[in-house]
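Example A, followed by Example B.
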Amino acid sequence: MGRSAFRLNRSVLALAVAAVGGVAISASARAADQVDFNKDIKPIFKESCIRCHQVTEQHKKASAGFRLDSRAAALKGGENGKDKDIIPGNGKDSVLYKLLLGSVNVDGEDVDAMPKPKKGEKFKALPDAKIELIKKWIDQGAKWSD
């Protein structure tokens, strides 16, 4: 084998190693980019949403009929958004995401932005990073671990 053939084979080998390494890196980057319900979303719901959007002994009905205490109930939707509250794979059209950005009109009815302020307080939106995390979670299929 001549020198030029050896150099060519070395170059091809280097490209092959780089390509395989690139696949491994992008696969691990994608895995790290996955939103985890228990780690990322559940704490947001617990802090900002669940107080009103669950059924308990004290509260027999969730606010607007929209529950966030189980995946099945959340995907069923509430009185306003119905099955459009969370549309797995489609965050931008999910009513939950829209309400985090501001008030919206859903099927002819005005719905206040979320989370609703406590009595006597002004509306305060969630931080943009949390809103975008919820959108990303919905875009990724709204996977849920109870």
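Example B, a separate protein, is given below in the same form.
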Amino acid sequence: MPVFIELCDMVGLAKDVVDTLLVLAQEKGISLEVTGKMNDVMVYTDRTKLKQILINLIANAIKFTSKGGVKVDIAAIDDNKAVQITVKDTGIGIKQEDFSQLFSEFKQLDSSCTREYSGSGLGLSICKRLTELLNGSVTVESQVGVGSTFTVSMPLENKASREIHGPDFSKIPKDPGKRLLLAIDDDPDVLKLLQDCLKGTGYEFVGAQSAQEG
């Protein structure tokens, strides 16, 4: 999968994502803020993948928070050899017994027909896969009724390899026994992640990078 390394201002990128998602927080009457002091420390990483990680984690935190707020913090750690991103919310929290399923594909922790929170169940799974592609890790701490904190750690100097060409999603599968899932996203890496996540499931995957192509 392509990994395009470039200099990235972590705090600036996080603020851009927060500005994009702020309306969601405002609609729920909760706060959303970014803190961090990088002191001109720039991260060598894939900006697009990092942005997707932030979007998934912050949007997820907003989704499960009805009062209080969400706080995003960026900090250099390990003598400026790594960076740590924490997304902390005051939401509903996660049961300890559900931690093992948290990053599973198509997994909603509330699977009842009357569940309050909708979604595909892919957001956190994609976030974990993207973080691993950037040689990082993601962990979670949570308490029911108090909130959750997701922590992403990754190196400041990313040694991931760079590739030029992305995968071809144009082939339409013809397995009549499987349901067909079409995903439209202008980032081929996101399509590749979805494709990988669907392997071994009852779905066939088709990806498109524009509405017209879809």
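On Example B: DSSP finds four helices and nine strands in the chain.
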